[in-house]
Design a protein that fits this description.
It comes from Trinickia dinghuensis. InterPro entries: BamC_C, NlpB/DapX. Residues 1-24 form the signal peptide. It holds the Pfam family Lipoprotein_18. Helices cover 28% and strands 26% of the residues. It has 378 residues and is α+β, with helices and mostly antiparallel strands. It is globular and about 60 Å long. The protein has one domain.
Length: 378
């Protein structure tokens, strides 16, 4: 027994030293666009891609249906040569000489690709994330939502003598102590365009306990710069040069007017001056900036199905301490589901939280969601 206890304590002590070592180092956001600043490695295999048991499968809409696999053998649309000589995925026009541009709303940016539909771009988005070291956790063209599993940016780990020796032998023992996930929303835009947004989520493993012999995952703020990095990388995959993609990011076109809040009649709703297409996209982006995760959405009904997401629970058992001391168990979704309704009102668009019968939800939780959306949309 004594020998066993000593062995466990020795392992824990060694793990603590490794964890502290892995958290060393510093970084500058000005260096994010450097080629060696993004080097992701997925934490594991994603579960089978299926509709969660507590949700009804969304009706497959043609604009989100990905083409068959054989399309890669010749069915994909041909690229277009721009005046600058690029072989661009987008269709150049008088407003967009490169066939695409960036729009922004606060610190949020998204890519608008001209002359392409979501189904034409979906297979390329799948390839894009896989080529950058990610496993796709959610890949459902019918909803226009693509989410990566949690992954570690190995570029955050100092390339010191320990990593070059022990780190290559026992790879999991040398960790940055951080995980990142990215959600891609793909929307059909007006006039035959496709809007693509990328949202970053982040967790960090922190030591806990008096002896610092255990750890837990805590949320970190999303990094708009890292989102911009991947938008830039995506534009390069779509045919632009690095300089062109950075120029489009710098010259992002501003979005529409802010939202106003209405608390009359005991219900809390939002009013946007935008027409439905634009408002639908803005609300989806705003939800991604909160702790509410979009599990499903029905554009025809104007409904986002959302729940409060405790991201840290998804990685319980992961990380250095988790791999050494915790057994794996199925990760269950938690949190009550809410229905966020986006509907045209003739002159603009209204946003409200509704119940299953379509009536406005007047609960404190619903009012809180509207308040969070109001803050994100202004």
């Amino acid at each position: 027994m004594k020998r066993s206890a000593f062995s466990i304590n020795a392992i824990r002590a060694a793990a603590l030293v490794l964890a502290i070592s892995s958290l060393a180092g510093c970084e500058s956001l000005n260096d994010w666009f450097s080629a060696d600043r993004v080097d992701y490695k997925a934490t594991g295999s994603a579960p089978p891609l299926k509709v969660p048991s507590d949700l009804n499968e969304a009706k497959v809409q043609p604009q989100y249906t990905a083409p068959p696999v054989s399309a890669a053998l010749g069915g994909a649309p041909a690229r277009n040569v721009t005046a600058a000589g690029n072989s661009s995925e987008g269709v150049p026009n008088a407003q967009d000489a490169l066939g695409m541009h960036i729009e922004r709303d606060g610190d949020r940016r998204w890519l608008v690709v001209d002359g392409r539909t979501p189904d034409q771009l979906w297979p390329q988005l799948e390839d894009f994330w896989k080529a950058n070291g990610f496993v796709l956790k959610s890949d459902v063209p019918a909803t226009g939502i693509m989410t990566t599993d949690w992954a570690e940016n190995r570029a955050n780990i100092p390339d010191d003598w320990f990593r070059r020796t022990i780190g290559h032998v026992i790879d999991f023992a040398y960790s940055s102590g951080t995980r990142d996930s990215f959600r891609t929303l793909v929307e059909r835009g007006p006039n035959g365009t496709t809007d693509i947004s990328i949202t970053h989520s982040a967790l960090e493993e922190v030591l806990t306990g008096q002896e610092k012999d255990s750890s837990r995952w805590v949320e970190r703020p999303r990094n708009p710069v890292l989102e911009a990095v991947f938008l830039s990388k995506l534009m390069e995959q779509f045919g632009l040069t690095e300089a062109q993609s950075k120029e489009l990011l710098a010259n992002a076109k501003p979005a529409s007017a802010p939202a106003t809040i209405d608390m009359s009649g005991g219900a809390t709703t939002l009013a946007l001056a935008d027409q439905f297409d634009v408002a639908w996209l803005r609300v989806g982006l705003a939800l991604d900036r909160t702790n509410f995760t979009v599990d499903n959405r029905d554009r025809e009904k104007g409904i986002y199905y959302v729940r409060y997401a405790d991201s840290a629970q998804e990685l319980k058992g992961d990380g250095l301490f988790g791999k050494l001391f915790y057994s794996s168990s199925p990760k269950q979704k938690s949190g009550k589901e809410f229905l966020v309704n986006v509907h045209a009102n003739g002159t603009g668009t209204d946003v409200s939280v509704v119940d299953a019968s379509g009536q406005v939800d007047t609960s404190s939780e619903a009012k809180n969601i509207i308040s969070l959306l109001h803050a994100q949309l202004n």
